[in-house]
Amino acid sequence: MSWPITIHTTPSPSIQPIDWANLPFGRLFSRHMARAEYREGRWQEARIEPLGMLQLHPGTSALHYGQALFEGLK
Predict the structure, then answer these.
(1) What single-letter DSSP state applies at residue 58?
(2) How many whole angstroms separate alpha carbon 69 and alpha carbon 74?
(3) Which pLDDT score is estimated for 73?
(4) Given phi > 0 = left and psi -120 to 50 = alpha, else beta, which region is 35?
(5) Closest Cα partner for 6 from 40, 37, 52?
(6) Spatial separation of the C-alpha atoms in residues 8 and 51, rounded to whole Å
(7) pTM exceeds 0.85 for this model
């Protein structure tokens, strides 16, 4: 199966060397992110684009995980 990926890059500022022995978890991010949308029962074209904000629907189950956990314990 072929899945085309469109790549949109950002200009590279001077890159600081990475200290691989002391990588902090959750504080060092790439300047890009992968994104693909699922519509009408199919994945749409994937793309790599500059790092940006994510839009989430308020009903996204990940936002209600605590509620689901609580309900499951009842």
Answers:
(1) T
(2) 9
(3) 67
(4) beta
(5) 37
(6) 10
(7) no
Tens of pLDDT along 3-62? 778 888 877 766 778 888 988 888 878 888 998 888 999 988 899 999 889 888 888 877
DSSP string, 4-57: -EEE-----PPPPPP-GGGPPTTT---SEEEE--EETTEE--EEEEE--PPP--
The answer to whether 32 and 48 have CB atoms below 8 angstroms apart is: yes
2, HSE (Cβ side, Cα atoms, 13 Å)? 2
66 torsion bin: left (phi>0), alpha (psi -120 to 50), beta (else): alpha
Q: How far apart are CA 60 and CA 11, in angstroms?
A: 33
Residue type, 7: I
| pLDDT for the residue numbered 26 | 82
